[in-house]
């Protein structure tokens, strides 16, 4: 008998729930739209937030190296003569190779030396040109980049040095190291406009610089562009130092801290936008549910007169709210994923990766907002007096 009575009560509740949601005068569409918009914004911003560090770090890597690997100061490399500077390029390359491939944007060893050009002295820099191009994509180059690391017939020269030496793209220039008695002639393939000290230097392939300077297989240090900031960069440096005790690996603090500050401000802005949208969504849903309860006051009074207690009324209102929230979240997740892709393409020129954790997070936040919005309407429904309703008051 009790089971039949419970089944009848649940059947009646279900009919009232369906009627309230699908009734011709229902304002449920407003609440549904509000929750869908709120869920869309939350899911889109959450997806962006989860990808923001990687995407933004990749964008910031266009502004130069943020990591340095050099010989450990004060300690001679095993097997190297005490007069030989720097360290073996094989060690630097092994240290670079220890960085996860998905984190390394570009890297190049550097070897500096003073050479004589046709019209005066200049600082020569031996580099890995493909790695240097990935390290410095912001450089403006007249002519073209050198495409391979072993090209010993071409060079790239800084803008100010080229102007002082009256050199242009296609000209030949002699590089002479009097100390080592080495010289070679190269062709200027590109003129660099970097806006810094590089504009006064000439860049050649590392093997050529090693030969001219008499430092075969050596390099002064390596510069890296790594997708990492803050604690991640510090952890990477610590790991590399443990694996290679003879090197000093460290983030370039000024650049890494700037990356972290920019990312922190963007994260804060996204959190503020999401919180604002949730507050507006909560207020909108609250107004809609309050209007629904007021419209259904006679119905609620009749339910109470027929024996429904406050618990049943509360359960009905919360069930309606939960169902509205679930439908709104489903719509919001679909819209939000599309919105995240639009924002990802517009801001980072990249697709945002779908992360399953967005679903429960969006659902949880939306459900909390909806239940908070239902507090006042529930209190209003509980306070309905059956006697006054039956008297038509």
From TrEMBL:
InterPro entries the UniProt entry points to: ABC3_permease_C, MacB_PCD, Macrolide_Exporter_MacB
Entry keyword annotation includes Metal-binding: no
Membrane topology summary: Multi-pass membrane protein
Protein name, per record: ABC3 transporter permease protein domain-containing protein
Primary location class: membrane
UniProt family annotation: Belongs to the ABC-4 integral membrane protein family.
Domain MacB-like periplasmic core as annotated: residue spans: 31-237
A cellular component term, taken from the record's GO annotations: plasma membrane
Domain ABC3 transporter permease C-terminal residues, every copy: 272-384
UniProt KW keywords: Cell membrane, Membrane, Transmembrane, Transmembrane helix
Domain of life: Bacteria
Subcellular location: Cell membrane
GO MF terms, alphabetically ordered: transmembrane transporter activity
The keyword Cell membrane belongs to this UniProt entry's keyword annotation: yes
Residues that span the membrane, as ranges: 269-293, 313-337, 357-378
